[in-house]
């Protein structure tokens, strides 16, 4: 189609790309002064009601999941000729496919991307949805104040897990879809997406597309020196026998994260900090180099900076500003710890370095947990002295935005600092309950996080 002038109030700038079913345009929201991407159903499918249904179902899924790791849908409307269009997040840095084409990615960068892609697919699985078309070109990249964001996109083939046994047509992209997806009427489950994650991992690591199933050449043979655990994980994900694959996207992603956090990710090569140790000694006078090293190392261990990035939960009606180092994992339904739950705190939003170990005592996880309570409460039970082996320091909050209490343990069982807070807006009944865990006691950071909380309803 020729370039239109506008879609509703959105002024069209240029075409971003076209696929089998839709064209995507870059447009500008002049009212809010913000760039958006607009996906429009192709003209040749205008009268195909099943295709229109699939198009609108993609918009519904993206709107309902409302995740940091998925492209957001802001609006849906219909053109005069009856074709629907959706207004979405504009990803200004292209796609992961563009990155792979440029050059071989450093291993840590490839594993970071893979972890964030896996988190997006985990959100879909938790929503009861199979993506069915995971590939590098369907993973977009957006710049943000705290760095590059990964956004899983293009859910045109996505289907409910409950309907998985009823698929009547093959769907997906050859080279990335599981063997069972190529069989019409195949009984699919989330492990089909795990296969696709394995194919994406293969390409991110080696720069080459994975062979068709059965895959017999491990990525380590193309890129020598990879951790054996990474070779094993990718090959298991690419198994033609789905019973041999990781059980779901979360299991796969957790293993990728664990491999990435190993101290020597490339056994065949010296780590970057060791290779350049001599040069650092000689160039110790260059304070900027030292600052970069310190920042990199502290980020790896969860030490937060004062650079905050917002995370959202529509279900909990909350926006929370958290250090970017803690935004690596988002959990939208994390249970409160028992003392807080007894006081009325329910499941909430968690942004943490390791969501799986948030409630354990033998592992360290730093981050922010928050939930919204229907009435103003003091939540005195959070101050139980046995939480960290000693009573907390208690103080009041009385700012223009918040009233309430804060309890602080500067040393919690030699495992960093813990801050709990129960605050509410003056005159409002709703209470925001937070827990903030830090590697070290920094009350100014806790105050900044508390001050940055917003109730979105």
Automatic annotation (TrEMBL):
<keyword id="KW-0067">ATP-binding</keyword>
<keyword id="KW-0418">Kinase</keyword>
<dbReference type="Pfam" id="PF00069">
    <property type="entry name" value="Pkinase"/>
</dbReference>
<keyword id="KW-0723">Serine/threonine-protein kinase</keyword>
<keyword id="KW-0812">Transmembrane</keyword>
<feature type="domain" description="Protein kinase">
    <location>
        <begin position="10"/>
        <end position="273"/>
    </location>
</feature>
<keyword id="KW-0808">Transferase</keyword>
<dbReference type="InterPro" id="IPR011009">
    <property type="entry name" value="Kinase-like_dom_sf"/>
</dbReference>
<dbReference type="InterPro" id="IPR017441">
    <property type="entry name" value="Protein_kinase_ATP_BS"/>
</dbReference>
<feature type="transmembrane region" description="Helical">
    <location>
        <begin position="283"/>
        <end position="302"/>
    </location>
</feature>
<keyword id="KW-0547">Nucleotide-binding</keyword>
<dbReference type="GO" id="GO:0004674">
    <property type="term" value="F:protein serine/threonine kinase activity"/>
</dbReference>
<keyword id="KW-0472">Membrane</keyword>
<keyword id="KW-1133">Transmembrane helix</keyword>
<protein>
    <recommendedName>
        <fullName>non-specific serine/threonine protein kinase</fullName>
        <ecNumber>2.7.11.1</ecNumber>
    </recommendedName>
</protein>
<feature type="binding site">
    <location>
        <position position="39"/>
    </location>
    <ligand>
        <name>ATP</name>
    </ligand>
</feature>
<dbReference type="InterPro" id="IPR000719">
    <property type="entry name" value="Prot_kinase_dom"/>
</dbReference>
């Amino acid at each position: 189609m020729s370039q239109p002038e506008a879609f509703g109030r959105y002024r069209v700038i240029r075409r971003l790309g076209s696929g089998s079913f839709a064209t995507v345009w870059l447009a500008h929201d002049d009212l809010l002064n913000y760039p958006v991407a607009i996906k429009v159903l192709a003209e040749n499918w205008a009268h195909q009601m099943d295709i229109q249904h699939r198009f609108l179902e993609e918009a519904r899924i993206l709107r309902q999941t409302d995740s940091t790791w998925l492209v957001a849908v802001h609006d849906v409307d219909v053109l005069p000729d009856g074709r629907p269009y959706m207004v979405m997040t504009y990803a200004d840095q292209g796609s992961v496919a563009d990155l792979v084409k440029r050059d071989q990615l450093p291993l840590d960068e490839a594993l970071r991307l893979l972890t964030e892609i896996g988190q997006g697919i985990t959100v879909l699985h938790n929503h009861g949805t199979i993506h069915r078309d995971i590939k590098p070109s369907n993973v977009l990249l957006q710049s943000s104040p705290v760095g590059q964001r990964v956004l899983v996109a293009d859910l045109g083939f996505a289907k409910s897990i409950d309907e998985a046994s009823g698929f009547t047509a093959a769907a997906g992209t050859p080279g990335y879809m599981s063997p069972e997806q190529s069989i019409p009427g195949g009984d699919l489950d989330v492990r089909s997406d795990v296969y696709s994650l394995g194919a994406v991992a293969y390409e991110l690591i080696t720069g080459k597309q994975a062979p068709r199933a059965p895959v017999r050449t491990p990525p380590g043979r193309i890129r020598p020196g990879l951790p054996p655990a990474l070779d094993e994980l990718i090959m298991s994900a690419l198994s033609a026998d789905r019973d041999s694959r990781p059980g779901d996207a979360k299991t796969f992603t957790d293993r990728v994260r664990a491999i990435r956090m190993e101290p020597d990710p490339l056994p065949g090569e010296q780590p970057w900090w060791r290779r350049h140790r001599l040069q650092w000694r000689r160039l110790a006078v260059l304070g900027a180099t030292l600052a970069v090293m310190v920042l990199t190392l502290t980020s790896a261990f969860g030490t937060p900076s004062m650079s905050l990035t917002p995370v959202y939960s529509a279900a909990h009606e909350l926006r929370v500003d958290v250090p970017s180092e803690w935004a690596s994992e988002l959990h939208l339904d994390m249970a409160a710890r028992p003392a807080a739950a007894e006081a009325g705190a329910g499941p909430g939003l968690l942004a943490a370095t390791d969501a799986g170990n948030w409630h354990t005592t033998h592992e360290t996880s730093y981050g922010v947990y928050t939930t919204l309570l229907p009435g103003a409460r003091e939540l005195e039970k959070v101050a139980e002295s046995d939480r960290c082996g000693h009573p907390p320091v208690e103080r009041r909050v009385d700012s223009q935005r918040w009233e309430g209490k804060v309890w602080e343990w500067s040393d919690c069982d030699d495992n960093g600092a813990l801050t709990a807070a129960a605050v509410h807006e003056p005159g409002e009944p709703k209470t925001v309950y937070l827990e903030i865990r830090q590697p070290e006691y920094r009350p100014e950071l806790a105050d900044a996080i508390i001050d940055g909380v917003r109730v979105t309803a």
